[in-house]
Structure formats: C-alpha cells, structure tokens
Amino acid sequence: MNKTQWIPIVCLRVIAMVSTFVATLLMVTSHDSAKVLGMTFQAKYNNSPTLKYFVVVSIITTVYSLGALFVPPRKLGRHVLVIDLIIMSFLISSFSAAVGIGQLGKEGNSHAGWIPICGQVPKFCHHVTASLIAGFVAVIIYFLLVLYSLNNVLNLVAFKA
Amino acid sequence: MVGEKVVDSITRWRVTMVVILLRVLALFATTAATVVMALNKEKHIFAVATIGNAPVKIEITAKFQHIPANVMFVIANGVATLHSLFMLSMLCFVRDKYDFKGLRFLTVAALDMVTIAVVSGAATAVAFMGEVARNGNSHARWNKVCDNFERYCDQGSGAMLASYIGIFFLMLVNMLNIFEHGRLINLSKNPLAA
Fold it and tell me: Which superkingdom, per the lineage (chain B) (predicted)?
C-alpha cells in the first residue's frame, strides 16, 4: 500500500481518535445541580445508562483507533476493516441513543408524562450537547474512514493477482 | 484449464447462494421488525378520582408514534427492507452482470454499510427508550410506563430483537463480500491460484 493510500487513512483515524476522546472528556465532566422546591436536584452523566454507554463506546473507539494506527496494512487490512465495521456500528448506535435521550431531556414526552429537565440544569444540557457534537464529528469521520478503507482494500486485493 | 474453470464457477455459485440465503433472512427480520413496531398500540383504563360513589375513568392509548425513537425505527427498518429487496432482485435477476470488479461491487458494499449503520442506530435508540420506559429514571423524575402497558412494551422489545437479528445477518453478508471478494478476484484473474 503506497503512501497516497495510507496517509489519508492515518489522518482520518487520528481525527476520529481525537474527536471521541474529546466527546468522552466533555461527557464525563458534565454535571450540574439545581434546587427545586427545597430539594437538590443533581444531574450527572452517571444517572442515565444511555450516556454511560456513550462514554464506554467512545473510550473503546479511542483506544482501538490508537491501536489500529500500528497495524501493518498489507497483511491485516481486511481484518482491520471488519473490526472497523463493528466498531462503527457501535459508535453510531451509541450516538443515536444519546441523541434520543437528549431530545427527551430537552423537550420531554407529554404522552408518557416525562417533563423536560433542561430548564432546571442548563449547564449540564449544554455540556452534553457539546459532547454529542464531538461525537457526531467522530461518527462522520469514522464512516468516511470505513468507506475509504473499503476502497483501499479492494484495490489492494485486485492488484495482488 | 477446464478443471480450474469448473472450480471457479462452483465457488462463485456457492458464495452467491450463501449471500442470497443471508439476505433473505435479513429481509424477513427487518420486515418483521417494521410490521411489529408499526402495529404497536395499547389502550389502558385508569381510574383517576372518585366523585361520590362513581370512579372517574380515563382511557389512555399508547401508540408507537408517541416516542420519536419508534418512528425512526419503523422508517429505518423499512429502508432496510427495501434495500434487501433491491439487492436480492439484483442478485437473482441480473446475476451475469453481477461480477466482482470495480465500482459495482464497491457500491453494493458501501450501501450495505450505510444500511447497517442506520438500522443499528435506530435499534439502539429504541432499546434505550425502552429501558427508560421500563425502569424509569429517578434522577430525572421520569416514571416507568411499562407496568401499565405491558403488551406495548413487550411488542416493542420483540421488534427490537428482530431488528438486531437483521443487523447480524446484514453484517455477515458484508463480511462475506469483503473476504470472498479477494479470493474470487484472484480466482478469476489467475485460475491456477486456488
């Protein structure tokens, strides 16, 4: 695999790694508390399993991206592509679920009687929004990375014969 | 030379048959998920207050549209069904033109990846919305819903399970395409290297 094929993949992977790292950091440091009717109402990412899943998947993606930078592309290119596909599926699913819960927190659900919480804890909401924006960048970059890897792997295999 | 050509076509036939079988299974799974979630509806009668001797009853209907994640789920699985149908028709009816070279194959593999991404996003969103509905969230003061709407929640869970099975089969198809493409390209270019 010559340099023109290999350098964009490395760049995309580094950007994806940095975005998922930033998303993890922003989500983990998000917390806010509010006093409503005498009770203290504390919002942390721990309180929601969806946001915990988002943090876990982001950490896994960061570590995997770091590891995949050091894999020899000619021998294990296709295996890296398949694991990339699985990790991309996890990343997209965690992002989608976190956005769903975020929309629930921002606008509530009148049919189920769930009131929105963003009015009481705006700092938490803004932090989570910023983290989800970083996650969205990571999703787009990772998707482009997988498509580009697919293109490279097929060319690689075709030229081997 | 004839022997190698026969091996080549038998291998291609086997791979194509396995891919067709997996795509049919994925089609069934995503269709089931779409239909089961779209028909998700339950009524429940709550006794809210008592005026004198007569209780005041309210009937509340839970439809699938009330939760936006369910709407995305129905749309995403519908798209996956259409995608599987389209790929199956391409495999079955234009098999001579479905060779493994160039842009045609790349388009099929990329479209498969897009479908997997979209459907997995929708299925996990429904999973976590269902978790909030089943367990509530005491920190956000969101009550659980599933103790009154058992059938609604169970039907949603079933649809989500069918969708995950569909994702699994679609991933198998994609991996098969990626791994077998190398072998078959090598076979068709150099029949001696089996």
Answer: Eukaryota
The model's pTM: 0.88
- Distance from the Cα of A74 to chain B's closest Cα (Å) equals 13
State the Cα–Cα distance between residues B74 and B184, nearest whole angstrom.
37
Disruptive mutation site among A78, A84, A89 for chain B (greatest number of B CBs within 10 Å): A89
How far does chain B reach from its first CA to its final CA, in angstroms?
Answer: 13
Packing angle between helix B102-135 and helix B150-189, nearest 10 degrees?
A: 160
Helices A122-160 and B150-189: crossing angle, nearest 10°?
Answer: 30
Q: Evaluate whether ipTM surpasses 0.85.
A: yes
Residue A14 pLDDT > 90, yes or no? yes
Instruction: Answer for the pair B57, B186: CB distance below 8 angstroms, yes or no.
Output: no
Q: Among B66, B117, B178, whose Cβ lies nearest the Cβ of A81? A: B178
Backbone angles phi, psi at B63, to 5 degrees: -110, 165
Sign for the pseudo-dihedral over CA of A144, A146, A152, A155: negative
CB contact under 8 A, B128 and A43: no
Integer Cα distance of B36 and A48 in angstroms: 27
Q: Got the DSSP string for B101-140?
A: SHHHHHHHHHHHHHHHHHHHHHHHHHHHHHHHHHH-BTTT
Residue contact B139–A82, C-beta within 8 A: no
For residue A111, give the nearest of B66, B189, B190 by CB distance.
B66
Long-range contacts from B98-105, C-beta under 8 angstroms, 24+ separation: B98/B16, B99/B188, B100/B181, B100/B184, B100/B185, B100/B188, B101/A158, B101/B185, B105/A154, B105/B177, B105/B181
Shortest Cα–Cα distance, A50 to chain B (Å) = 6
Q: Please tell me the distance in Å from B175's CA to the nearest CA on chain A.
A: 7
Model confidence at A68, pLDDT cuts 50, 70, 90, reads: very high
d(CA B6, CA B26): 30
Low-confidence ranges of chain B (pLDDT < 70): 1-7, 95-102, 181-194
Residues of chain A in contact with residue B178, where contact means CB-CB under 8 angstroms, are 78, 81-82, 150, 153
